[in-house]
Amino acid sequence: MGNFTMRLRQNVFLISLIAGLLLWLVYFSYASTRLRLVYFSYASTRLSRPDVSTTTKWLAPIVWEDAFDLTVIDNIYKPQNITVATTFFALGKYVRFLKDVLESAEQHFMVGYRVHYYVFTDLPDEVPTVTLGEGRQLTVIKTSSSNRWQEISLRRMEMIEKLIEDEVINKADYIFCLDVDSKFYAHWGAESLGDLVGVLHAWFFGTSRDQFTYERRPESQAYIPFNEGDYYYGGAVIGGRPDKVLKLVKTCRMNLDVDRANKIEAVWQEESHLNKYFLYNKPTKVLSPEYLWDDRKGKPSFMKVVRFSQVEKNYAEIRPNP
Ligand code: UD2
């Protein structure tokens, strides 16, 4: 009887030992696979752009090629069936830019997503017919022009404000407001979406803060002193959730109104007011200059891709005033 109990105990001990070892092996292989996965995803998304900064000081992403995984991003946004409103202003001779910008947008901009273009123009009959993909539509909004290009540019704020309040707030999930004298050259997709989105101006990327062309006169509502400022943002790209962009354009429009009453126009019109707004209301996502390059500019090594770029234009010929 004593022998039988001892053997039973030995067997139970051996079985427990083997089961424990097996469990430990299963756990070890699971944990190491996880570790490897975590390591590789870290290496492929975080370490692939050591040449540029991929976050701001307030930890907003700065979007660069090879710093995001589009498959993961599309898996987030595609099931949501989102609509992206997109505005272009084409007043006077700027109507000639519409064909290229719209055709190239159909090739590269938010492909696979619903897009609703809103084209503001004083020349509706000259809006070109562009074949739009599935889920994409275009609305023309007749708008009065001005004999000053500065006025045309800055009045976009109040017109976007009205458009969002009247329509976009109920119909779209995101909005982008883009300069029309531009062209898409490569993919621009859901990686650009965020609550409040700004773009780094190609000509000021990498320059010191003192060289930024912020409004420097304290009399203007757009005033930024020399010791302040994060980046110089381009006025050609504003984006985000409609309610966030509404707050931005409304604030800028009100500050433009105050400036007008005080007979002062900021050095870069609404772009100066936009820079002031972003200083105190930080964008939640910042697009690198890949999203606003300039055809006249060479391509430094950090620019792995040009997605959207200003086309060359003869300012004297195309603008209504010098
Ligand atoms: C810069 C900004 C622009 C705006 C402007 C303010 C960039 C790359 N560009 O561009 O966004 O902030 O400074 O001064 O950041 N427009 C017309 N008809 C006209 C004149 C202008 O439709 O006769 C519209 C058009 O949508 C154009 C926009 O206003 O894209 C801005 O005008 P611009 O491109 O001539 O201004 P620019 O190049 O100085």
Automatic annotation (TrEMBL):
Q: How does the UniProt record describe the way this protein sits in the membrane?
A: Single-pass type II membrane protein
Question: Superkingdom of the source?
Answer: Eukaryota
Binding sites annotated in the UniProt record for Mn(2+):
D179, D181
* Residues at which UDP-N-acetyl-alpha-D-galactosamine binds: Y94, D179, V180, D181
The record's cofactor note says:
Binds 1 Mn(2+) ion per subunit.
Q: Does the keyword Membrane apply?
A: yes
Record-level GO BP terms: carbohydrate metabolic process
Q: Which GO terms describe its molecular function?
A: hexosyltransferase activity; metal ion binding
Asked whether the UniProt record includes Manganese among its keywords, one would answer yes
Identify the CDD domains for this entry: Glyco_transf_6 (cd02515)
Q: Which cofactor does it need?
A: Mn(2+)
Kindly list the positions annotated as binding an alpha-L-fucosyl-(1->2)-beta-D-galactosyl derivative: H201, T213, E271, D294
Q: Which InterPro entries match?
A: Glyco_trans_6, Nucleotide-diphossugar_trans
Please classify the protein's predominant subcellular localization into one broad category.
Answer: membrane
Catalytic residues identified in the record? E271
TM stretches of this protein? 12-30
- Which keywords are on file for this protein? Glycosyltransferase, Manganese, Membrane, Metal-binding, Signal-anchor, Transferase, Transmembrane, Transmembrane helix
A UniProt-annotated Pfam family: Glyco_transf_6
Q: Name one GO cellular component term.
A: membrane
Localization recorded for this chain is: Membrane
Q: Tell me the protein family, please.
A: Belongs to the glycosyltransferase 6 family.
| UniProt-recorded name of the protein | Globoside alpha-1,3-N-acetylgalactosaminyltransferase 1-like
Which organism does this record belong to?
Hemibagrus wyckioides
